[in-house]
């Protein structure tokens, strides 16, 4: 027996929360970490994004599409952090 949701929660919000968290982490790493340590701290930040993605989507309490939502959150976080990291890398390359 399946139970239909009368008013299902918007699950895309959890994906966007993970992406915004990834952007904040990448900007913090880029501004605080020395250039030679940025790549290492970006990897640590991506690990934090994975944990945040799981926590956010578990908090929603919806099992339908859980894997797809978590995968979209993590892949988007990787892309967001990668683009911001490329920006900081180019800035470092052309600054000196």
Distance between the termini: 65 Å
Helix/strand/pairing category = mainly alpha
Count helical runs. 3
What's the total count of β strands?
A: 0
Mean of pLDDT: 90
Proportion of beta-strand residues: under 5%
The 3D shape can be described as elongated
The percentage helix is over 70%
Radius of gyration based on Cα positions: 16 Å
Largest sheet: none
- Residue runs with pLDDT of under 50 for 5 or more positions: none
Query: What is the ordering of alpha helices and beta strands?
Result: HHH
Keywords: Membrane, Transmembrane, Transmembrane helix
Transmembrane segments: 12-33, 39-60, 72-94
Q: Could you describe the 3D structure shown?
A:
Keywords: Membrane, Transmembrane, Transmembrane helix. This protein is mostly helical and 96 residues long. It has a domain of 63 residues. It is 77% helix and 0% strand. The chain is built from 3 helices and no strands. The chain is elongated, with a radius of gyration of 16 Å. The termini are far apart.
Descriptive tags:
0% strand, elongated, 96 residues, mainly alpha, 77% helix, 3 helices
Brief synopsis:
Keywords: Membrane, Transmembrane, Transmembrane helix. This protein has 96 residues and is mainly α.
List the topology elements.
Elements: H1 12-32, H2 38-60, H3 66-95
Helix pairs in contact: 1-2, 1-3, 2-3
